[in-house]
Structures are given as structure tokens and as C-alpha cells.
Amino acid sequence: MAEPDRQQELGELLAASVTAARAGDHATSWRLTSEFGTRFWLVEPTDLPDLVDNLTEVQRTEFHVLRAAAADRMELHDDTVSEVRAWRARAEADGDIPSAVLALSSLCLVAMVVECDDAVLTGGLAPSAALLTELAARIEDAGAGVSDDTPGHTRACLSLAAMAGLTCATSTENPGMRARFRGLSDRFTSPSAQPGDRVLTEAQQLHADGRAAEAVELVTGYLAELDEELSPTQAYEAHDVLGYFALTAGEIPEDMDTAGVLEHWRACAELALAIGAPLEGMHRAEQVCQLLNADGAYDQAYDLARRYSVALKGAPVSPALLNLRAVRARSALGADLPYEAFALAASTADWSALTPDTERTLACLSIATMAAEEAGEAGTVGSSTTGETVVGLLERAAALHLDRGERISAAQILRTAARERCASGWYSRAVEFMERALRVLEDVPANTEDDMLTWHLADWNEDMSAVWEMAERPDLAVGYAERAARLFRDARDHSGSAMNWVSAAELYFDQGDGPSCDRALDLAHGELTSIPDAEDPSDAGENAVWQGYHTLRNLRQN
């Protein structure tokens, strides 16, 4: 498309967005927000006069409204705050006080998200409680003279602001402000003009009051009367609320109504796609994919994530987009698409590393590691080069765990890298990784539980014994097996101790050292009988350690 055409389309988009907002046409507003986010995100406010002919003040303000909405959907919290503040300042300068009040309510919702989700916000933002107090006062001032003759724009802004304040007060468990905003919502939300908003607000308050069954019944009845084709945004919001009710159905998160969450939020994701508003449904799509992946429905998760990726083409890299890419990578792995899974997970890990979300980065590194192994990048015996992709990913994950202060996790990943190098027959590199893992373990803070650290040191010695045994150095392997056995005993893991004494006995037997073999078997027997409620099974095959013990005993006796 030629640049002048694109410039003209931005002007038309801003004008259409103003018209849709004034008419209460939410479906068009949602679609235009997604179009703005995927096509015009890189446009700066200073560029507007050169890009849009005859730019009105209302359109200039609408630019910030759209940019704030798009940033909010993409979880770009700093950008959301910046654009809402610009929106509020322009509205006040233009004398559009109702719009300025609505902008303030958007700041309340950002504060709610930041506080409830522990989201990262580098720019300053007042606590939700302070913002709610200011918002209530501004709504009361702006609505002092509201009557039946008041323009619809004013009433709509005050109604939406009051409901946003009520949502924020409810979510942040601010009972005083919740009661105040309940009154404001009742005052400014007209049942005839905004029936859906009133029903959903009432249901959310019933749910917050502990009357969950009534809340579900109210929204379910409202949804049954809707025609989703004629009222897609109202249907979306009803499904969204019902999904939240299903999510919080139990006393603990594990008791949630998973089927209900999946049904309703999946409907949200599909509705958003159907009306061309993928930014609106992106977060719900990601959550649905997570649930589908957890249930093993990888093909379904992959299909939904793929369709969203196509619809979001042109959108900037953002936390929400990275989350969606991460779940798509996991579904691709489960759907037996390892090459695509690797490409998605590795690139997403690279972008995620530039953000504070280390959990997502670690998850993507883990997916990329598994995908690389399935794609044939894991090591094979006799090759020193294959598997370096996997090892590199493991090293990055270990370094990130160290940055988080998780030394035991870092050591475990370095040991995984050592096993990978063993599979390639590159034993010197495996020993290098094992030694690095030991140094990490030795630096674990002193306040770590003694038994836990002792157990991990025992486990490290067991792995090191296996490395030397694979390297055909049984003389070195046996010493580590004995140290592992003693440390497992100190950690009160008698089964682990017995297994390593049996391993040591086998190594001694193979070397022809009968007395040392017998001594190790005696110690293994002592550990086996120290296991609570332990009995020598009649069929040693039922227990691998007992089986190993008896096999070696019989060999020694014969």
C-alpha cells in the first residue's frame, strides 16, 4: 500500500473510532483498536500533523485513547499509563471533563492490574486507593448537574468510569470505596441505555458478596437471551464474567471449574477473532491454550494460537504476545512439531530475556531444549558437536537460575548438561559441567535446610560416579558411589544410600575386589533394613535395589 493511502487510512481510523465511541458501538471500537495496534503502533504523537490532513483536536485525543487501549491489551503497562495521561491532559485542555474522568478510571484499572498481578511498572503511578478516592470525587463533581437533558457522551463517560471504579474497588478489596462506587454506578448507569453493563456489574457484586450461584444464574440468563452475531461484545463480556466465576469456583485454585473456564474463555477468544479484534481476545486465547496444553489437547491449542498469531501480524513484541508465542511453542512440541516448537521457543526466549519475566524465559528455554532433543539435536555417542544446541540452552537456563539466586536449580541443570555430553561420549566436557555444578552447590547459602543440601550433594556424587563409569574409569567411579551412599544416609534417604552401596559393590566385584564388595553389600543391607516398614521381598524382582543386592550376594557365594 502506498504511504499516502496509509496516512489517509490513519485519519479515517481516528474519525471512525470517535464516531464508534460516541455511538456506543463497542464491536467497531474493539476492531479499530486491534487495527491500530497491528498497523499504526509505531506512529508517534508528534508525527500526526504530518500524517493526517485536517486533524481535529478530538481525533488527536482519540489517538491517545486508541494507543492506551492497544497498550493495555498487550500488557505494556508503562505505555498504557503514559497514553492515558496524555489522553486525560488533552481532554482537560479541550474542556471535555467527562472524557478526562473516564481516563482517570483507566488509570485506576492499570493500578488494579499492577497490584493484583505484581506486574512490573517502571513509571510512577499512585496506589489504587488514592486513585479511587480522586476518581469518586471527580465523578461526583462532573455529575452534579446531570439530568435527562445531559448529552449522552457525558452520561456514558460517567457510567463507564463509575463501573470501572467499582471493578477496581472490588478486585483490590477496598470495601469503603466499593460501597461508594456502587452508589455512583446505580446513579449514572441507565438500565434502558446500558442493560448489559448493569447486569454484569450486578452479577460481579453478587459474586463478591459470596452469592456465587445467584451471580452465575443472572449472567447465564442474560447470555441465553443474547444473539451473539448481533451483540458479539456483550456476549464476549458475559462469557468473560462466567469464565472468571468458574475460575474462582473452589476454595483453592486446584478446585476451579476447569471445564467452565475453558468453555467460556474459549468462546471469548473465538468471538474476538470473529469480529476482527484479536488484541481484545489475546489474553484469553493464551489462557485457553494453557488449559488445553495441560489437558494434552495440543492440536487444539496449537490451532487457536496459530490463528491468533496470523491475526496479530504487525503487532509489536509485547508481554502478551510473548506469552501467546510461549504457549504456541509448547503446543507445537506436544503436537509433534519439534522444529517449529524449537524456533518459536528459542526466539521467544531471546525476546523474553529482555524483560523482567524470568519465569517465561525459563519456560521457553525448557521447551526449546526438549524440542531440540526431539528434532535430533541431542548428543549421540561418538560425536562431540551434536548436542551443543541443547547444552547451550541448558547453560543459559542455569545462568538465569543463578541470577535468581536459585543455586540448587542451577546445579541440577548443569548436571543435565553433563549427562548430555556423556551421551555424546565427550566425557571431559561432562566432568567440566559436573565440577561447575559442585561449585554452585558449595556456595548454597548456609540457611538452606541441611538435609536438603546434603541430599543434593549426595545426588551430585551419584551422577559423578555414573559419569566416570561411562568413561570407563571404575576406579574413580567407586569412590563417588561410596560418598553418595554416605551422604544419602546422612540425609536419611536409606533407599538412595542402599542403591549406591550396591553400585559400589558391583564396581568392586567387576574389579575383582571381593572383600570390598562384601563390605559394600553389608552396608547396603543395613540401609535396606533401615527403611521404615522395610522387609526383604519374597520376589526380589519387585525391588530393583534388593534384586541387585541378592544378585551380587549369590555371585559372591558361588
UniProtKB/TrEMBL annotation:
This is Uncharacterized protein. InterPro entries: TPR-like_helical_dom_sf. It comes from the Bacteria.
